[in-house]
Structures are given as structure tokens and as C-alpha cells.
Amino acid sequence: MKAIQHQELVTPALLIRAEAMARNRQRMTQAMSKFPSVSLRPHMKAHKCGPLALLQVADGALGVCAATVDEVYVAASAGVKDILLSNELATLAAVKRFVKIAAEFSQAKLRICVDSVGLIRLLKEAGAAAVNVGVLIEVDVGHHRCGCHPDQVVALAQAISEAGLSFDGIQCYQGKLQHIRDRDARRDAVMASAVAVAKLSKQKLLDAGIECNIVTGGGTGTFTVEAGSGVFTEVQPGSYLFMDVDYGKNPDTPFESSLFVLATIISIDSTRSWAVIDAGHKAVTMDSGPPAVVGHAETVQYTSGGDEHGILSTGNVGDLPVEFEVGKQLWLVPGHCDPTVNLYSTVHVMTEDGKSE
Ligand code: PLP
Ligand code: MN
């Protein structure tokens, strides 16, 4: 591959710092080594990228989670052998596509989450049993997004078996708790929701004589809690690979930023009170707060300038850092890695000497 310097890139551009990402991978391997009976199933929604999924498998991951059928396809075609669609589908067209991927990549084990009999019927109609698709029941552990009530778990597991499908376990994911800043408060909240509901749901299944082999969930902010709970068999962190401003505010995180948006100053106002960069809503997302400017995170704030522009200012008249000039490149840490990655079709992997990998 051609070696390039970041100065040669046309901005805005999405970059990974290879060494920082490698350190995050090592930190995850180290963290998971404390839980030898729990598997790592990273969520590929963070990167949506086959080669990175394979790196995670090489790190010891059992397989990956995918959020969409497209991500399932990316993982399967890259050669990942164990893929969980950690989400529900709702139309026959979508389920048929999922089943088609399972048929095309028969060496890969595909699983999907369900929370209603409707999806079980669609899976049956699409022929999921013939291609060995596994089914997990998603349980609402208090996130109030997808997931059934724990009281529905037994009936759904029975419906899965009656449809000729394999019931493999439960997903109990609590997304809202990932960013509780205080570590103890975060742990307590996970214990009271995801862990408690997972235990209860598993017990209901066992009482009904139904095996529950997989209990999956947990993200970058909480995976050690789920992994240490004695009930989860696997965890699903995704953002740990890249991190972002929001996750960086969890004071106990062992992970560092490895994902950046490279932007360029395209205009400076005559009083040097603000600079305009070529990274607006099409380059960074604002859903979890603004990006941070590397080297100026404490003093310079990013505000939206619309689709194509970002505005940088300290808030004081004439106070831009002296090195801010038109043409200068700046590195931004995304506010939220997952939706920012989704804005790009290419990511440049840079090593510390500035070359692409
Ligand atoms: N599992 C599920 C079901 C998710 O929706 C997500 C992210 O939203 C994750 C795991 C990964 O979480 P994180 O990116 O916070 O590590
Ligand atoms: Mn996210």
C-alpha cells in the first residue's frame, strides 16, 4: 500500500492511529484475561470494517456483533465465523437477506435477536432453520428500547423451538448506563438492571426445563461488570477500539482515543476571534456533544457551522491560538465514534511516523 503523510490527505478525512488502537486492543485482552470463562464479542457497529473485525478475532474474540444486515454481510465476507445480529428485523425482505447471507457463508454461524413471535414467524418463513441460524431472545433490562419482558422469555423460547429454530440464549444490553461517570454508581446500576434481569430470565428458562447457553450484553463502559457477574457468558464492547470525547469522560476508562477526524482551517475572521474548519455535520456528529481539538481541548470549543463548516473559538475576542492559520490541519476527537465512522467510506490507518499502514 502507498505510504502517505497526513499532510497529503484531502480533508475532512477519518484516521486511525495504529499504535493507539493496538494499545486499546492489548488493554481489552488484558481486561478480559481476568474473566477466563467469558468470551469477547466486540460490536462492529463501531468500525463496520471487515479487516478490523478480523483483527479483533485474532485478539481472541469469539466473533463479532453486528447492528445491521449490511454489517453481518461485511463480517461474513471478511471470514468472521461467528456473528450475532444484536438487533431485531421486522420485514420478510430483511429476514430473507439475513438468511441468504447465512446460506452463502455457511462456514459462519449466524445468530439474530428476537423479542416477538412476529420475527420468529418471519425467520421460519424465510427458511432460517435450514441454514442453521441461531436465535437469542432480547430482554428489556430497563433500557426500554428493544427487548421483551422477562415474563415472556419462556413462551418465546418455546415458540422458537416450535418453529424448528435453535434457541441459543438471551441478550441483556443496557446502553444508557455506559456513560454514568462514577464507576461505583455505574456498576450498581448494571447489577440492578442488566445482571438482575439476566439472572431472572435465565432462571425462568431453567425452571421451565429450557437450556440457556448464551447470555450476552455489556458495552465499553460496563463490560467488566457483566463479565464478572457470573451470569454473562460473553460481552459486546465496541467503542473501546476507538474511544471518543463522551467515553473519555468516564474517569476509570483504560482506553485512549485512536480515531480522529482530520480537518483544515479554511477561514479566519479579521479579528482572529474564530476559525472556520472544513468539518461540519457531514464530517462529525454532535449527538453526544462536539468533537475536541487535539492540543486545545481545554481552551478551544467547536460549534456547528452547518453541514460543511465547524467554528472554533475560545469564546474571547481576538484570542485564537497563534498557530491557527488558514491551511493548518487540526486533529479532532469525535464526540461519538460510531455515528462519525458511519459518515465515511474510507478510513486511513496512520502509524506514528505519519505513514499509512
Ligand atoms: N451491544 C449493543 C446491543 C449495542 O447497541 C452497543 C452500542 O450501542 C454495544 C454493544 C457496544 O457498546 P459500546 O460502543 O458502548 O462499547
Ligand atoms: Mn455508540
Automatic annotation (TrEMBL):
GO biological process, one term: D-serine catabolic process
One protein family per Pfam: D-ser_dehydrat
The organism's place on the tree of life at top rank: Eukaryota
D-serine dehydratase-like domain: residues covered: 258-351
InterPro entries: Ala_racemase_N, D-amino_acid_metab_enzyme, D-ser_dehydrat-like_dom, D-ser_dehydrat-like_sf, PLP-binding_barrel
Record flagged with keyword Lyase: yes
Molecular functions (GO terms): D-serine ammonia-lyase activity
N-terminal signal peptide: none
Alphabetical keyword list: Lyase
Annotated family: Belongs to the DSD1 family.
PANTHER family (UniProt xref): D-SERINE DEHYDRATASE, ZGC:162816-RELATED
The name this protein goes by in its record: Alanine racemase
Species assigned in the record: Chytriomyces confervae
